[in-house]
Write a structure and sequence with these properties.
With 278 residues, the chain is of the alpha/beta class. The protein is 46% helix and 16% strand. The chain starts with a helix and ends in a 6-residue tail after the last strand.
């Protein structure tokens, strides 16, 4: 690790996801904590995580954490709800740097904003199956009722760039009808891909439902944690310091085009890494 405390504040933040969804978290970190450098890894070879077992997702997550630690990151953000649900507990025990996921910040926000105590969660099959949102929210407020709905087709639709498309509208309508019938007033976008189809989801749910975006809440939580631990970077990195670096396990070119449509900073390159080596 770094020898001097001052250096540690300038160390990058590691962020990872199963694919491109975690870029919604990266975008929020860039906006809310602009002095920080970021090393992002998207596991594009093995996306989606949501249909895989807990053991597999945990194994993948461990490999990625080992990769990020080779870049001497000062903290790691698990920008994937499935990995947060399946692997975060193990990763926290095994990792020396502080590590946060996207589930708790979203759960906390939802339990604060709900008025009628009926909260919907849309997420991958693995996240819904883990019941992790229900557990967290019920710890915060036992009077709340949670309605979970797995939406397995959203990730591939988002990864294909079909954000504003009749197909996506139709599938979203099918998934969400059930939740509308449950009279929820708050909906957690429980997968980091989902904010990219937020306008579609909002349109279908209607004005009366508050959408909670865990990507936004996670960046706030990260900022708080860095402040608490004295790890916030006090100054803006100099020009040419390669502030944002992107790595993927496959299809770097496709990822780069996609990333540029999400993050308007111009992503210079994405390097491919053989993640199985870690």
């Amino acid at each position: 690790m770094h020898s001097r405390e001052g250096d540690l504040r300038k160390a990058p933040i590691g962020v990872f996801d199963s694919g491109v969804g975690g870029l919604t978290v990266v975008r929020e970190i860039m906006r809310q904590i602009p002095n920080e450098s970021i090393i992002f890894f998207g596991d594009t070879a093995r996306v989606p995580y949501g249909s895989k077992s807990k053991e597999t997702v945990t194994r993948y997550s461990r490999q990625i954490v080992r990769f990020l630690l080779t870049h001497e990151v000062k903290t790691i953000v698990v920008a994937c709800n499935t990995a947060s649900a399946c692997a975060l507990e193990d990763l926290e025990k095994e990792t020396e740097v502080p590590i946060i996921g996207v589930v708790k910040p979203g759960a906390r926000m939802a339990s604060q904003v709900t008025r009628n105590g009926r909260i919907g969660v849309i997420a991958t099959e693995a996240t819904i199956g883990s019941r992790i949102y229900s557990q967290y929210i019920q710890e915060l407020n036992s009077k709340v009722t949670i309605f979970g709905k797995a939406c397995p087709l959203f990730v591939p639709l988002v990864e294909e760039g079909l954000w504003q498309d009749p197909v996506t509208d139709e599938i979203a309508r099918r998934y969400l009808t059930e939740l509308i019938d449950c009279d929820i007033d708050t909906l957690i976008l429980g997968c980091t891909h989902y904010p990219l189809i937020r306008s579609t989801l909002g349109k279908i749910m209607g004005e009366g439902v508050t959408l909670v975006n865990p990507a936004y809440e996670t960046a706030r939580e990260l900022r708080r944690m860095l402040e608490e631990k004295g790890l916030l970077n006090p100054e803006e990195p100099g020009l040419g310091s390669n502030r944002y670096q992107f790595y993927v396990s496959d299809k770097a070119e496709k990822f780069k085009q996609f990333a540029n449509s999400i993050i308007k900073y111009g992503i210079l390159s994405a390097k491919t890494v053989n993640i199985e080596d870690y």
